[in-house]
């Protein structure tokens, strides 16, 4: 495992389930050698997509698309198949013909002109989630809020990692819009968690509530809606470290009062992530 010490301003491109998303902040970076980047976030019960790029920290356009001689997929240590090329939204991917299976480990090897990239991770299990109620409140300053409640049951005897996000349905085209929120949490044992900070993604693990039922209230401040989508994603340790460090790097980019943060990587001979996750979305109304 390694960390990217100098790439304060970059969120590495990543793939989630059947869609791709790239985010880049054009801030001058330290000069350095070009490095190959392999990204594959593997969602339970979904096709695996791999994206290959090359990073040049000295350029304003930081990622250049790369092609591999061959990209191979291994399942539980056994060769499964060679991934084939597919273009999606003008970008080149390498995709599997099989779905990622809960509890299985997957290794991806990419034969490049410069050498071999590889990374490996396991697919976490599903999250047991129960939707709660939606309510509208007014804070002490008279601002309207929407409260979204849900609870999850944490799996016992293993470290679990989670990411929460909230989406609203856009009325004009029904595309979900990512919404910022603050978090209140309360366990059945009575310990309280109240966070006034607003997030577009909230990351947590079960160190303090292993095997408990955890209830959460997500507050959409200055917003009144009649329904919203809450996304609860179970993450492997590698995916948790990568996504959380990427999120923090983007949130803190350009802030002179925050020390530059590192972005986690688990790719041998390159940068990026091969990580497992399991996405679950619930509608609260």
Summarize the structure.
This protein is mainly beta.
Helix % is under 10%
The ordered string of helix (H) and strand (E) elements is: EEEEEEEEEEEEEEEEEEEEEHEE
**Span between termini:** 42 Å
Low-confidence stretches: 1-31, 187-192
Structural class: mainly beta
Shape: globular
Q: What is the strand content? A: over 45%
Number of domains: 2
Number of helices: 1
Number of strands: 23
Radius of gyration: 20 Å
Chain-averaged pLDDT:
83
Describe the sheet with the most strands.
10 strands, mixed
Task: Walk me through this protein's architecture.
The protein is mainly beta. It folds into two domains: 2-124 and 238-278, no CATH class; 128-233, Jelly Rolls. Helices cover 6% and strands 58% of the residues. It has one helix and 23 strands. It has one helix spanning 237-252; strands spanning 2-4, 10-16, 19-24, 35-43, 47-55, 63-65, 70-75, 78-82, 84-88, 91-99, 105-112, 115-122, 128-138, 144-153, 161-169, 176-179, 181-187, 192-199, 202-205, 213-221, 228-235, 263-265, 271-284. Strands 4, 5, 6, 9, 10, 15, 16, 19, 21 and 23 form a ten-stranded mixed β-sheet that branches. Strand 17 (181-187) and strand 18 (192-199) form a beta hairpin. The longest helix is centred in the C-terminal third of the chain and has 16 residues, at 237-252. The radius of gyration is 20 Å and the shape is globular. This is DUF4249 domain-containing protein. InterPro entries: DUF4249.
């Amino acid at each position: 495992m390694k960390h990217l010490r100098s790439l304060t301003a970059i969120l590495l491109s990543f793939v989630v389930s059947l869609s791709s998303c790239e985010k880049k902040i054009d801030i001058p970076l330290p000069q350095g050698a070009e490095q190959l980047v392999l990204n594959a976030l593997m969602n339970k019960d979904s096709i695996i997509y791999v994206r290959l790029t090359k990073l040049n920290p000295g350029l304003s356009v930081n990622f250049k698309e790369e092609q591999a001689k061959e990209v191979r997929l291994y399942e539980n240590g056994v060769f499964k198949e060679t991934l084939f090329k597919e273009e999606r939204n003008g970008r080149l991917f390498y995709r599997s013909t099989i779905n990622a299976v809960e509890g299985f480990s997957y290794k991806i090897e990419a034969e490049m002109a410069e050498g071999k990239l590889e990374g490996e991770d396991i697919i976490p299990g599903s999250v047991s989630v129960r939707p709660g109620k939606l309510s509208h409140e007014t804070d002490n300053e008279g601002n309207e809020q929407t409260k979204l409640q849900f609870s999850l049951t944490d799996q016992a005897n293993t470290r679990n990692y989670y990411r929460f996000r909230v989406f609203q349905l856009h009325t004009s085209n029904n595309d979900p819009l990512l919404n910022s929120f603050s978090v209140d949490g309360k366990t059945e044992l009575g310990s309280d968690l109240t966070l006034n900070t607003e997030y577009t993604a909230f990351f947590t693990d079960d160190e303090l509530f292993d095997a408990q039922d955890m209830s959460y209230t997500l507050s959409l401040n200055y917003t009144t809606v009649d329904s919203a989508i809450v996304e609860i994603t179970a993450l492997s340790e590698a995916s948790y470290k990568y996504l959380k460090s990427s999120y923090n790097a983007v949130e803190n980019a350009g802030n002179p009062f925050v020390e530059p943060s590192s972005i986690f990587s688990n790719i041998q001979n390159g940068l990026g992530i091969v990580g497992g996750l399991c996405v679950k979305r619930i509608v609260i109304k």
